[in-house]
């Protein structure tokens, strides 16, 4: 099921006297989620991700705009008529019911032509349980399960009524680091197996980057950029997106365009075409550097961190904006531990320029 | 290990001594009194030990009347007040804006003195040579015959007593239940809504189980409270409850000790032991029932 949002907006009214004015939690969402894809809604806390998800689900009414499932306009439909499966951040499993009864719950609500016999319900429940691999836990109470298992039960409960769209609100945020890695792969697998269009909310860029077919990067209610994770990572349209994506984060320098050259501090690193003269911000991913005695960038090396095959060089530079600068280089090309002044060369294809004021990307040719 | 234990007991000594003197000792004393036959409080002597006191009390028509009254009171007011409180709290929690206002109104009886409230009820229900009482005026208005609620037929008096008891205990129960309802996580309701759960099912399958510990608490304390009813009856019908046929078990005990027929601590103790046995039994039954239906 394709999902289309048109100018979707949610404005919360002011919360009584004394508090700040209206909050625009979701501001003019206008994009399309292709059928059968796993989409990550990504942004820092409080940027309106949950609000957006609740709008799609129908628990909240939009102030303006429309939502389409396929060609059907569902904007006016209540959540129960939309056929969505929702996994809440804290799972919202009914604590007094067993896992089986939790999974059966949505099925028991079906009425009229959709009504199922007891056998069919059980069959469907066990099918859903099998997808998330919890068949052996059916008689437990949620409180007897680990976080990861509860998570699976919540997914099974959302899947059991065969929703048109599956919505997950920060499904991994309550799990420990190890389980988080494992569970995100599970979500990917389940989504592939079922082929249900899935929207997955997270504030963790790594999570979204690793499993999603498409990411939607948000900032304070607005969509900054949408696209394939790798594409967004490599071609950020704004400084915010560039800085939000990637671990270790992108290195930011204050730079300027002068006499056809790009200067970082005193170092002329490239010649530029197609950029106006003046102050800019230059962003370079850690993998965009190379340790090179003839490199253009003169830096002070702080330390070398070796983690297996990769070596990351932590350095400082007078023009740096980022608190920590980091370059990832090959083990056999790394500088020695006790070097002080080093030179790094920059891969022209990995350097991105942004407007100093607006943070918008400046497209130009570097040589 | 042994030393630690000793220390622990030492720390607990003040509390234990307090409990012992003010709780355990009187309890044991009551049992002893109830077994002493022909006890004379002036000379502090008795003839023998046995179950005579129990036999006497259980054959005493006043006690049987009190027992009947108490049971009727308990069986009517506990379910009624709990059910009503649940209905009102549900209504309150669905009207967000009026919540605090209503809470104050319903809580007023709780902070008002029982005897004062009893007086007000008396004015509402009492028929005097000068006035029919407000309730009778209402009954007359709708074409009914006046009823003497305070000194009239048994059922009328029982009705007033039950009405009054429900009215007095209602605010506390509403307070407890509204806060129990408010503490149910909104996400459960959201999840139920996404899954198209009908309203009635949301109530029976989600709300009720979630607040069941609180309901259970109210039922248990309600039973115990109603079994110990006394001051309400006094407030409505005066101190001579035996004559008014409106005595309760606790009232009977009091009368046996200090009332017109007073001066019989042994009979009073026997009645107290019987009350204790009844409350214990009911509480045990409650606990057994709750094991199936209460979800913690
Ligand atoms: N019910 C509400 N009333 C008013 N403001 C709200 C409400 N819910 C959320 N907000 C505000 O809307 C913004 C987005 O919230 P939310 O969607 O929960 O963000 P996220 O899920 O990305 O952390 C926040 O600034 C939050 O304070
Ligand atoms: Mg959120």
What keyword list fits this structure?
heterodimer; A: about 375 residues; alpha+beta; 2 domains; 7-stranded antiparallel β-sheet; 6-stranded mixed β-sheet; 9 helices; elongated; B: about 300 residues; mainly alpha; flat; binds adenosine-5'-diphosphate; binds magnesium ion
Explain how this protein is built.
The complex is a heterodimer of chains A (367) and B (296). Chain A has 367 residues and is of the alpha+beta class. Chain A folds into 2 domains: 3-238, Rossmann fold (3-Layer(aba) Sandwich), CATH 3.40.50.300; 251-366, no CATH class. In chain A, 24% of the residues lie in helices and 35% in strands. Chain A has a 7-stranded antiparallel beta sheet. Chain B is an all-alpha fold. Chain B has one domain: MetI-like fold. In chain B, 75% of the residues lie in helices and 1% in strands. Chain B has helices at residues 2-35, 52-59, 61-94, 99-111, 114-125, 134-141, 154-182, 186-194, 199-227, 231-237, 249-258, 265-293; strands spanning 36-37, 48-49. Chain B has a two-stranded antiparallel ribbon. In chain B, helix 2 (52-59) packs across helix 12, helix 7 (154-182) crosses helix 9 and helix 11 runs antiparallel to helix 12. At the A-B interface, helix 2, strand 6 and helix 3 of A face helix 8 and helix 9 of B. Magnesium ion binds next to helix 1 of chain A.
